[in-house]
Amino acid sequence: MAPSPGGPVETTPPRRRHPACGRRRSFERDGCPVTDRTPRSGPEPESDARPLRELRAERLLSLRELARLAGVALSTVYLIEAGRSTPRSAAIRRLAAALDVDPMDVAELRRALRTRVDRG
Known about the structure:
There is one protein chain. With 120 residues, the chain is mainly α. It has a domain at 52-119: lambda repressor-like DNA-binding domains (434 Repressor (Amino-terminal Domain), Orthogonal Bundle). The protein is built from five helices and two strands; from the N terminus they run E-E-H-H-H-H-H. Strands 1-2 form a two-stranded antiparallel ribbon. Mean pLDDT is 79; it is low at 25-29 and 38-42.
């Protein structure tokens, strides 16, 4: 048998998938994979405060549009919605103004304000 023109072909093994959900394995928690898309567990928003994502969707704004209206970086809005960042005071004011809401009506902004007050 003659060798192939490009030389030997190396194949990589297929990525392993979790049998129950089919997601690519990453870190595991309780037997299920934890990926970047796995919701983070954390304090539930207060009943009268609404999530930023919900308010943004209600106003039919994309992440990019809200970031532009508020004058903040796209990544700032994304990270706040994902629960991976605590916004600074300026971002809180700008986002609340862009959405035309009181900052205490947005769960993530309320949490950030309370964290800042607790720190002193």
